Amino acid sequence: MNRGVELIQGLLLAFACVVILMPPYIRLLRWFGLGKQIREEGPDSHQIKQGTPTMGGVLIVVVVLALAVVFNALDVSTYSPLVVLALVGALGAVDDILNAKTGIGIRGRHKLVWQTIVAIGVAIYVQNHFGFNGVRVPFIGDVVNTSTIWLPGIGRNVEIGAILFIIVAVIAIVGASNGVNLTDGLDGLAGGTLVFAFISFLIIALLNEPRVQPQLALVCAIVIGSILGFLWFNVHPAQVFMGDSGALSLGGMLAVVALITGQILILPLIGIIFVLETASDIIQVVSYKTRGKRVFRMAPLHHHFELGGWDEEKVTMRFWIVGALAGMLGVTLFVASIPK
To answer: How far is CA 260 from CA 69, 117, 130, 243, 256, in A?
Structure first.
């Protein structure tokens, strides 16, 4: 009971903090001239968004980090997600500032280098601290080696070795970070899908065996509340954008949460929207460079539907629905794999 109350308190306080602080923060962003520069090659309907304050993700990051300290939610299960949130968030903030001031942010390859460095450091820490040498496979009976170190999560631990685990972890962190960033192209789209994803992993953290992870669940609740507060101002027509400071950092954090709960194989399902957005972008680029033809009207995927005649709000809501259903399916898959 106390655990549930604490989760609700963390979520509601995070929501209240963001809702109260966001209006003066938006005014501050306007005062510094930190408005989004809209790409000319994007949909024509997006040009009206030119100059909308960006870097809303910075406030999310600050509130999450501050409340994690206030709620004493710092332990071995939360250090690495919060480190990724802070370090990748700093990279995103610099990119947002450069984009607002010059119209050109940090080059993609340079961002990838920083993301990879952070991901490698975190992956090595997670592997060394928790002793991960494999991945948990759903629906295959649970075998937990308790003689050395606990292995969180449901499903058989399939050994792949420390090095390969670190490689998988790095790919997951960098991939999720960029996947959420690609999704952040419509008002409320990335924020809403992130909420459903973090709700899913909050539930998994509470049900995780052989050791539940209440502090990790609490941090997830704080993230959910913060994003909901942000969405109050980000739903169409957006008063502020998340920017790379929020999208890159929250995506990377989501992947680390999946790693620590031992459910990295369920992440692509729970984050199916991020996977589809990334896949559509890759397919479009490869097809155009190899065949000179486009598969989609425009990539990432949400622009394809926009140019197909869907209103922005319709695209966002339908993607939210898919994200919510994928989250429920991911949690169901996790619960169904609990050995009877």
So the answer is: 20, 19, 8, 26, 6
Contacts of 285 by beta carbon, 8 Å cutoff, 6+ apart: 299
Dihedral, CA atoms, 97, 101, 104, 107, nearest 10 degrees? -30
Neighbours of 314 (CB within 10 A): 12
Report pLDDT digits (tens) over 234-261. Answer: 999 999 999 999 999 999 999 999 999 9
Residue labelled with tokens 């990377």: 252
Q: What share of the chain is helix, strand, coil (3-state, %, to 5)?
A: 70, 5, 30
Write down the pTM of the prediction: 0.93
Helix (H) or strand (E) holding 95: helix 79-102
Which tokens in the block code for residue 126?
A: 């997670």
Measured distance CA(317)–CA(126) in Å, rounded: 35
**DSSP bridge pairs for 158:** 135
Instruction: Report the chain's terminal Cα–Cα distance, integer Å.
Output: 25
Q: Is 272 left (phi over 0), alpha (psi -120 to 50) or beta?
A: alpha
Residue ranges per structural domain of the chain: 2-336
